[in-house]
Design brief:
CATH architecture of the largest domain: 3-Layer(aba) Sandwich
Oligomer: single chain
Distance between the termini: 58 Å
Number of domains: 2
Radius of gyration: 28 Å
Structural class: alpha/beta
Bound molecules: S-adenosylmethionine
Strand order of the largest sheet: 3-2-1-4-5-7-6-8-9
Length: 495
């Protein structure tokens, strides 16, 4: 109730600055159970970093009543609400039979470097650190956070929760453990690389990576996927690395976390480039046996970056109205959704025109009519009047009106998709906009465009694309050209 009251009273904007989102009880229950299973002994201290109104503090008090709980939060308002929940009348003094609760109104990163080393005995860090994006951190905050994170975060793009994780890892003694609910981005981005490496190589600690699907909104309104990371105490022997795919379900008004898949991964090999698809690793490896990476036999590049698509891509009506010469225009595909079928042939290209969508690129490469053709001259001066010539990309070009020369690809692929990345064979000799990737088959490719497109559209192909893409909340996924180059495509695939 307190969490809800706070969320209603304090605007989203103000909560975002401190990354204040409260953890649903089902996730708190799941995390407490997960950490109970990996601990070897009762922790003497449980630290709740960014305690809010105390979702974890209150649970920890129930599970480990004789331990000391330390709730650290910068926000004195939520800390005050938390004080009302737990009996902590005198800081540090225990109630009969209960360990004390300490409420610490301080920056966790400062607290962990100054006060944490004084605590003796096994310690557990359990909680949901602030989800604060790097853009919302001040320069001073970033500087202090970097000091606390040391070599575990070297990129400037990390959010505050990654620094909380790094500072906690740096402060772990062998008997200590952690269990944190985090935004999933560190699992696959560059800024999380050192953290992943540390976890991969800490083979004497049990590590559990629990991933929620992108459709589960744990951090409301943030477009971020959520994950739970648990790290156990150091043992004498090698410990497992476990990855799970979770889901958050609701039945009769009660939410629960369910485990969908679980894999135990051998940490003998090198650290995988991403932790986001660990549960799919086995099938991906099997498929890779008889395959080639797409980038080894094909070129992949974005379509034409014009800097002003509304000016450079024209519909049939615009083309007619402007009377532009044929030699200044090339057939084009601006968006995958414009194409009515799996193959962009002349008929499909005509259909795009009939639907009123743009399908011609103003391409002045090799066209010498800029000074002689009156219609073209007047279209270009209209572009100038609109300021197209002063746009960033136009200023980079030799002539503002002459876009980069891009060859026509064999296949178009939509880099962003919801459950599916569209694959379109290009039989119309069209050039794509930069909303699309073009795949150009090289002479050594073992497939023709029809075979490759058929595999890319198949269940296996789409699953492999999903495995390489970044997932966003709401179910959309995005592929980068670099990941697409590493796509393992079976050598033999017949249609
Ligand atoms: C995601 S909320 C989690 C709240 C609570 N633990 C829960 O799970 O419901 C993060 C909390 O971190 C706090 N916070 C933000 N920056 C902090 C900092 N530098 N040090 C300590 N707490 C901070 C915010 O005030 C907020 O209460």
């Amino acid at each position: 109730m307190l969490a809800e009251a706070y969320q209603i009273l304090v605007s989203g904007e103000n909560r975002r600055q401190l990354g204040t989102f409260f953890t649903p009880p089902a996730i708190v229950r799941y995390m407490v159970d997960a950490v109970l299973a990996i601990l070897r002994e009762r922790p003497y201290y449980i630290v709740d970093p960014g305690a809010g109104v105390g979702a974890f503090t209150v649970s920890a008090r129930q599970i480990w009543p004789t331990s000391t709980t330390i709730s650290v939060d910068l926000n004195v308002v939520t800390l005050g609400l938390l004080a009302a929940r737990v009996d902590s009348r005198v800081k540090g003094r225990s109630k009969k039979g209960h360990g004390p609760v300490e409420l610490v109104p301080q920056d966790y990163l400062e607290w962990i470097s100054r006060d944490w080393p004084k605590l003796e005995g096994p310690r557990l860090v359990l909680g949901n650190p602030p989800y604060t994006r790097h853009q919302q951190m001040t320069a001073g905050q970033k500087k202090r956070a970097k000091e606390a994170a040391g070599s575990l975060v070297t990129s400037g793009l990390a959010g505050l929760s990654a620094y909380f994780l790094a500072a906690t890892i740096n402060a772990l003694r062998p008997a200590d453990s952690l269990c944190l609910l985090l935004p999933g981005s560190w699992c696959e981005t560059r800024y999380g690389r050192e953290l992943r490496d540390w976890l991969w190589h800490s083979r004497r600690r049990r590590v559990e990576v629990d991933l929620f699907p992108s459709t589960v909104e744990v951090f409301p309104g943030t477009q971020v996927t959520a994950m739970i990371l648990s790290v156990g105490p150091e043992q004498k022997s090698r410990q497992p690395f476990v990855a799970r795919a979770l889901d958050l379900t609701e039945s009769r008004g009660r939410q629960s976390v369910v485990k969908k898949t679980e894999v135990t991964i051998d940490r003998g090999g090198p650290c995988p480039p991403s932790f986001a698809r660990l549960t799919a690793i086995k099938s991906a490896r099997t498929r890779a046996v008889n395959s080639l990476s797409l980038g080894s036999v094909a070129t992949i590049r974005r379509g034409v970056a014009t800097g002003a698509n509304h000016f450079f891509f024209l519909s049939d009506a615009e083309r007619r109205r402007e009377g532009l010469p044929d030699k200044a225009l090339r057939p084009a595909l601006v968006k995958a959704s414009h194409c009515p079928s799996d193959t962009l042939d002349l008929e499909a290209h005509e259909a795009i025109g009939a639907a009123g969508a743009p399908r011609w690129l103003l391409d002045m490469n090799g066209c010498d009519a800029a000074e002689t053709d009156e219609d073209l001259k007047s279209y270009l001066s209209r572009g100038k009047a609109l300021g197209v010539h002063n746009r960033h990309l136009a200023l980079q070009r030799k002539f503002w009106h002459t876009v980069e020369l891009v060859a026509t690809p064999d296949i178009f692929l939509a880099p962003v998709g919801k459950g599916c990345h569209r694959v379109i064979r290009n039989e119309a000799g069209a050039v794509g906009s930069n909303n699309l990737y073009g795949i150009y088959l090289g002479p050594l490719a073992p497939w023709n465009s029809q075979q490759l497109a058929a595999w890319l559209r198949s269940e296996d192909g789409q699953l492999s694309l999903q495995n390489l893409s970044r997932q966003y909340q709401g179910g959309s996924s995005k592929l980068e050209p670099r990941s697409l180059r590493s796509l393992a495509v079976p050598v033999e695939y017949s249609v």
